Structures are given as structure tokens and as C-alpha cells.
Amino acid sequence: MSQVQFTPVPIIGMLGCCVPVVPGTTDTDAPIEQRVELCAIDANWIVGMVPTCDVHVRFICEMLGIDWPGLVEEANRDLEHANRGAPERQRHPQDAVRAHQEHFEGV
User: Fold this and answer.
1) In whole angstroms, how far apart are CA 68 and each of 19, 24, 80, 104?
2) What are the Cα distances from residue 15, in Å, to 9, 22, 96?
3) How does DSSP classify residue 69?
4) Whole-number pLDDT of residue 2
5) Which domain holds residue 59?
6) The pTM is what?
């Protein structure tokens, strides 16, 4: 089984989430061809090599059976803050997030 590496981002507000989503949403439940925008919510994690927001890390944890509250605690973060919904979060401009994606993923 492959391992997933979660790295907390120590300085938040600098990176946007690079998970492909349906435009105007955080929805990843569509074919990749329809997910033409990047999430762009403030990224608090690097998952593998992808800057990722709490919303999508939580989804990854649920999908893989990883203890989300335990991961947040291990990162010394506040669970209530980490569980905030997408509308309550800062979003970065798409062009900036595309630059983040290029830097981290070499796309």
C-alpha cells in the first residue's frame, strides 16, 4: 500500500489549494475535464507535492480511513478552526494558485 505524506504548512496565507475543482465550488466529484479551476482556498497542508486546504485534506482522510482529528492534533492545530466550511475561508486568485501548482508540481 502506498503512503500519503501530509506536511503542515507553517505559515498560512501564502499558498492556495491546487486541487482541481468544478468552477466556483470545492467539488471534486466530477470528471477531471470538468474540474478546470483550482480550489484556491488557503492551503494549510502539502499532501504529497500538492498544496491542499483543510477541506480537501479532510476529504482525503475520510476517503482513506485516516484519523482527521488525530492528524490535526498531531499538527498542533485547532480542530474547530480546521473544520470551518469553505465559504468561511480565504481564496487566492486563480493565476496565483496556478503559479503555486507549477512551483510544487512542476506542471
Assistant:
1) 18, 25, 12, 24
2) 9, 19, 8
3) H
4) 65
5) 6-105
6) 0.90
